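TL;DR need structure tokens for one chain.
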Amino acid sequence: MAVSKKDPVLVVVELKGGNDFMNTIIPYTEGVYYDSRPVVGLKEEEVLPLNDTLAWNPNFEPLKDMYDQGEVAIVQGIGYPDSSRSHFRAMDVWHTCEPIEIGTEGWVGRVIRELDPNGENVLTGVSFGKGLPRALALSGVPATSIDNLDTYGLMTDIEADPQRLQALEIFKEMYSPAIGTGVVMDYLSQTGLDVIKGSDALKKAPAMYTSEVEYESNPIAKSLRDVARVHLADLGTRVFYTQHGGYDHHANEVPSHPKLLAELSGAIRDFFKDLRDHDASDEVVMLVFSEFGRRIRDNASGTDHGTGGGAFIIGDHVQGGLYAEYPSLDPARWANGEDLEHTIDFRGIYGTVLEQWMGLDPTPVVDGTFEQIHPFADR
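>> reply
TL;DR here they are.
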């Protein structure tokens, strides 16, 4: 188990739309980068060097500062074989760890089941956002979805029937086409209303919270502030899940992507500062991921769906550094003739966090054994 004052906690941040990893961690000494990205590529003098070959996007400076403090592990080339370029299918794979068949069990749902096999605490897993991500959905396993903690959230406030029904409808619309209405309705009938049990406890969290940290006014900052408030209320939540949308940059990437990176990195910095101010960061690790990367060449305005993305593992117990391999920019090694190749399987990164941080056997969660990295300083 983790060397921590309390039970280890995992915060998962999903970057929806396919984050452009090449413009996040930039191969700034590679001529191929500049030749392939005349429009969206950053100039060498703009970037923040990480080492002799890679650099940070300048809008990611808060995360660079945390990296320099040894708190950020960068996972390079994350993906899976023959990865899908479809948002729906790619997220389905990441959410269920099933790249071949259509999976019906969310990987975080499996984690919640391992942590709380009798379903005694409906707040063991909490998601912030509209609807319940597929990652948390598992028949018989309750999970709570909160849209706005200050108004008690979707699927949690017993008095907010219209909102709760709207959230259930979102879930049904999202997943019925993939796994069938029977499975979806079974899930809703068994667990959809169980989450109401956590509403009274969640209502206490804002009232118990005080902080000198001023989070920015954007969705990811608000969500991570809500994560902090629930975590600090000590309600027994072991897995938090939240999302930051807008990364599907087929067009207008130059103004949009930097703004998102600034929002994300600023929110992560403020979140961990908030926890440290409350002596509550020691038990928390964050995993940041996206469903795929983008193409190597830009399309004159943005970048299209690709592969070979990147992820980040962040926390006090993380040994900062680069993990796995940055995908080769040699055209002979490009996947599909136009993509970054993947160099490590995402299921191995899930397994790394589950086994080395959460103290769980990852095999039943990720459906197999995959190569892990070793990013934790006290392992």
